Amino acid sequence: MLKGANVPVPAPRVRVELGWRSGTGVPDVDASALLLVSGKVRSDADFVFYNQPAHGSGAVRHDGKRTSGGAVTDTLAVDLARVEPAIERIVLAASADGGAFGQVPGLYVRVLDAAAGTELARYDSQDATVETAFILGELYRRQGGWKFRAVGQGYGSGLEGLATDFGITVDDPRRPAPAPAAPAHVPRPAAPPRTTPAPAPGPVQLSKVTLTKEAPTVSLAKQGGSSGALRVNLNWEVRKQFQGWAAKLGRAVAQHADLDLDLCALFELADGRKGVVQALGNAFGALHQPPYIHLDGDDRTGALAGGENLTVNLDHKDKLRRVLIFVTIYEGARSFADLHATVTLRPQHGAPVEFFLDECTVPSTVCALALLTHENGDLVVRREARYLVPPRGVSPQRTIDQAYGWGMNWTPGRK
Questions:
Q1: Sequential DSSP letters for 228-272
Q2: Strands 209-210 and 353-356
Q3: Residues 6+ away with beta carbon under 8 Å from 214
Q4: CA–CA separation, 400 vs 366, rounded Å?
Q5: Where is this region: Disordered (predicted)?
Q6: Residue 161 CB: number of other CB atoms within 10 A?
């Protein structure tokens, strides 16, 4: 499509894919969406991005990044049938972290039918220079239906400038906190008790942390994530990525057969107790009692809130000595080859931490994702992204136990 062109969007549910080519010196890029009424958001809740990944209506969700060779995609899922009637258009934006879009090769946005996977529209950006944020396109209502328009409007003020332009209140960590009010010198009679209204939601925080091989660790406390819930999400491509592998073996992959990955956690408490949280054996854990880790559910399709989710209760972090988060293949493939997955650790307070899994080049069925260790009253997150190959007759769980010296006894289980 050319800039300014538009096409109908007949599908009720679409996948908006932002893509580019990675490489040395290429900034990271993030997709976002703004739901607008009369050109502005109604509130900060109408902004969907990496720190606020789902709209309250359920109509728009940020599904996260995937890598494949030298290509990277960041995806938004949009259920047009669930978009509130008041919403007139959905702006599809991109922001560059660590550089300008002139350094990002092959930048494009495309809209796909979520059910069929067919491409409905595509716009390739070819004239970016110093911009650090872009409106690549927009979905808008027209005569009872939806259309997509290629926009290609750049901003030099980054995601903050773009968001502010549409009415978002952005938290500025450089802004000093307001001074407390001076106490009144005149005594006043005690006021009758009353219900305290709920505080207004705070401004949107745009900060995030990306772990790499060169910078693999981060302190949660230094990012403001010292209490509340820490949500760990594993998001992956659930269909078609293993079809090439299966074809080489001369097997057909059924269209309904999805890859079933299991997000798990080995834990060691401060008192020495050890265990595992996993779907196998229905060991889902508990959030408000030991081990203070809970697996939200067993996602056998890759569609459960954008993957599998596990929660750690940071209010009890002093009772945790170490936690190893890992993933196993339960069925659907014999290896992680061609898996494109993103791991995101999202503390209730503070910046999210994300990293990508490396390409798998070994016949691995278990991957260590992240290691959380208790150090001086803080939990430190270390990116592992380590693929392991179980010896013949050894389970993936026992394999990862041996690699990290957990020392547990394992018995067969099922789910």
A1: SEEEEEEEE--SSTTHHHHHHTT-PPPTT---EEEEEEEEEETTS
A2: parallel
A3: none
A4: 7
A5: 171-203
A6: 14
Query: In the listed set 99, 134, 165, which residue is the last one of a domain according to the structure?
Result: 165
Residue type, 334: R
Query: What SS3 class is residue 212?
Result: coil
Torsion of CA 25, 31, 36, 40, to 10 degrees: -30
Question: Of 165, 192, 222, which marks where a domain is finished?
Answer: 165
Structure tokens at 3: 């800039």
Contacts of 325 (CB under 8 A, 6+ apart): 232, 263, 264, 265, 310, 343, 368, 369, 370, 371, 372
Question: Are residue 353 and residue 271 in the same domain, yes or no?
Answer: yes
Tell if the pTM clears 0.85, that is, is over it: no
Residues 275 and 139 in one domain: no
The per-residue pLDDT for range 262-290, each reduced to its tens digit, is: 899 999 999 999 999 999 888 999 999 99
Given a contact cutoff of 8 angstroms between Cβ atoms, the answer to whether 136 and 152 are in contact is yes
CB under 8 Å to 6, separation ≥6 — which residues? 147, 148, 149, 150
Strand 60-68 and strand 71-79: pairing?
antiparallel
Question: Rounded to 5 degrees, what are φ and ψ at 46?
Answer: -85, 15
Q: Digits of tens for pLDDT over the chain (415 positions)? A: 999 999 999 999 999 999 999 888 898 899 999 999 999 999 999 999 988 888 999 999 998 888 777 888 999 999 999 999 999 999 999 999 888 999 999 999 999 999 999 999 999 998 899 999 999 999 999 999 999 999 999 988 888 889 999 999 886 544 444 444 444 343 444 443 433 333 345 567 667 788 888 888 988 887 777 888 999 988 776 444 444 433 333 333 333 346 778 899 999 999 999 999 999 888 999 999 999 999 987 554 444 445 789 999 999 999 999 999 999 988 877 888 877 778 889 888 778 888 888 788 899 999 999 999 998 888 999 999 999 999 999 999 999 999 999 999 988 766 6
- Determine the structural domain holding residue 238 and report its residue range: 209-404
SS3 at position 282: helix
Query: Are the C-beta atoms of 25 and 104 separated by less than 8 Å?
Result: no
> Which residues, other chains included, contact 41 with Cβ-Cβ below 8 Å and sequence gap of 6+?
34, 35, 47, 166, 167, 168
